[in-house]
Design brief:
This protein is mainly alpha-helical. The chain is built from 23 helices and two strands. Strands 1-2 form a two-stranded antiparallel sheet. Helix 21 packs antiparallel against helix 23.
């Protein structure tokens, strides 16, 4: 009998090679994962001796499950593009420019409010892509715009795109074949609840930490020290703490009592509304506004290689009433709130409407699409179409929105198809005539033996590693949820909590993701400065991952 250690070593090759190609050779995620898929296939057929039909069914089922996620992402992107071509995004940017002049207040409103809304509604890199140009338009240094576009996109991807990491990570990355003693929906709710506890606690101090780092990195010479930055942070601390605690409390409450689809949207809107009122009425707002040093003193690093002249970008304009610009997202939030509200008991009814395949290729594997429950098909696409009617878009703008959405979804769709298919092959390799433990199970056993009781401390770093190389909290969960679940079972601790910690870690990795950093550099126009950004965001990444692991240990051994 081949030892578990040797099986685990072999099972690690598809993921290790894919990661090496991503980071070392800078291949695309789809191409790298494709190589991993080929290696997993060879191992499954040769070493694990999977029946060819069972292998083919596993690969096909994974690809079909990935389509569920692709539909969510496409719907979210389509809605965003309808808002872009209609002028709604321009209106929202215009509005932010007139709210407050204190840079600390602007940072908190956009970071804790705007980015959280966009993450909840769209996800997949959209918050940073929208927030960074907004920061620059308000007068932030380009490097700072990129850094804080990433920084505030860390405690919210766990519920991004209407809960895609949890919905897709559990349903597509695990499925009924992995879960023991529970069903998919109940386990998704469990992951949502515990993820919300950790991210909610993080939100409480995240805004304050963001202000401190803003001043420490981009303040005047006297402020670029720990004491100097703390001195300039103190006056805004009450404002930052109120918004942070509010964001965390709302996100946690919605995640715990309602589910994974709405926490970010609800928290973002509440924080943005309360923050705007507080800023407008000078509640807890310091009398003296904080400002960046004079632009003429900005270093080449701050400018990201740009010149001051290139920063004179076109002013955003008001294309429609501000409330009208926000209406599509309000409708999405209201729909998700009503349909997921526990006492209305609509979830079970919506899940009854399905299309699918029983017995893929004649095996016991199956696939289904719950089209009235999946956020992509309901409400994203219908609301996007309704947005076009609401804004009276002409045919050209409507086609532009669809074409741009198709262009944006293509690389993500290919990556997800390959990644989910790869994961499914590794999971289903457990069914083999040689009676070997499956690839994922072998990795889980070795992880459990190596980490032991400290698994909750290690779990967020694994999640962060997955997002670091793939650029997606969802893909990280798909790759590692089963690994973490089985490792927790081996150690004898809460499987749901460990998978939730994995999900939180996936969000942490958003800050340092190679793909996300490259994308935001392209949006801001500072391509080639990825190293400057990475050096900055490493600090909050370590803080968040360490905090998540520590809280995870307390939850596993003291609370749960």
């Amino acid at each position: 009998m081949t030892s578990v250690a040797i099986l685990a070593l072999a099972a690690s090759v598809p993921i290790a090679v894919a990661f090496a190609l991503l980071v070392g050779l800078r291949w695309s995620a789809a191409r790298s994962m494709g190589v991993g898929w080929v290696i997993a296939t060879v191992l499954g057929l040769a070493l694990w001796q999977m029946e060819p039909t069972w292998w083919a069914a596993s690969a096909l089922t994974g690809a079909l499950e990935a389509m569920n996620i692709v539909l969510i992402v496409f719907g979210a992107i389509l809605l965003m593009n309808y808002l872009e071509v209609s002028g709604a995004i321009s209106t929202i940017r215009w509005y932010f420019r007139g709210i407050a002049r204190d840079r600390r207040v602007q940072l908190l409103l956009i970071g804790l409010g705007f980015e959280t809304i966009i993450e909840g509604a769209a996800g997949f890199g959209t918050p940073g892509a929208l927030a960074a140009p907004l920061f620059i338009g308000l007068g932030f240094p380009p490097l700072g715009a990129a850094v804080f576009g990433l920084f505030f996109n860390a405690p919210n991807p766990q519920f991004g795109a209407a809960g895609t990491p949890i919905i897709g990570g559990v349903e597509s990355g695990m499925g009924e074949s992995v879960l023991v003693g529970t069903d998919i929906v109940s386990f998704q709710q469990l992951i949502s609840a515990w993820s919300g506890v950790i991210t909610g606690l993080t939100f409480a101090f995240w805004g304050l930490l963001g202000v401190f780092l803003l001043i420490y990195w981009f303040g005047d010479e006297a402020e670029r020290s720990l004491r100097g930055a703390a001195r300039s942070t103190a006056p805004i601390a009450p404002f930052a703490l109120v918004l942070g605690v509010l964001a965390g409390a709302i996100q946690w409450a919605v995640a715990w009592f309602i589910g994974p689809a709405l926490p970010d949207i609800a928290a973002g809107f509440v924080v943005l509304a309360v923050g705007i009122v507080m800023a407008d009425r000078d509640v807890l707002v310091p009398e003296t506004a904080w400002e960046f040093p004079d632009r003429e003193t900005w270093s080449a690093t701050w400018l990201g290689g740009l010149t001051l002249d290139t920063l004179e970008t076109e002013e955003p304009t008001k294309e429609m009433p501000v409330l009208l610009a926000w209406t599509p997202y309000l409708v999405v939030g209201l729909f998700l709130l009503v349909t997921r509200w526990p006492t209305l008991d609509l979830v079970a009814t919506l899940q009854e409407f399905t299309v699918g395949i029983d017995g893929v290729l004649g095996t016991s594997q199956s696939w289904s699409l719950r089209y009235l429950y999946l956020p992509g098909t309901m409400p994203f696409v219908p609301v996007a179409i309704g947005t076009g009617l609401l804004y009276r878009l002409d045919g050209k703008k409507t086609m532009d929105a669809w074409k741009e959405s198709a262009r944006q979804i293509a690389p993500a769709a290919l990556t997800l198809l390959v990644a989910v298919s790869l994961t499914r092959i590794m999971i289903e390799s457990a069914t083999n005539p040689a009676e070997f433990v499956g690839m994922m199970e072998a990795l889980s056993i070795v992880l459990a033996q190596g980490a032991g009781g400290a698994l909750p401390l290690v779990s967020p770093w694994i999640g962060a590693l997955g997002t670091f190389v793939t650029g997606s909290n969802t893909t990280s969960d798909i790759l590692f949820n089963t690994l973490q679940y089985n490792a927790a079972a081996e150690v004898g601790i809460s499987k749901g909590l460990v998978v939730a910690i994995q999900n939180v870690g996936g969000g942490v990795g958003n800050m340092v993701s190679v793909l996300n950093i490259a994308a935001i550099c392209g949006v801001v126009g500072i391509t080639g400065r990825e190293g400057d950004i990475l050096r900055k965001v490493l600090v909050p990444t370590v803080i968040f991952a360490t905090f998540a692991g520590t809280v995870g240990m307390l939850l596993v051994y003291v609370v749960a």
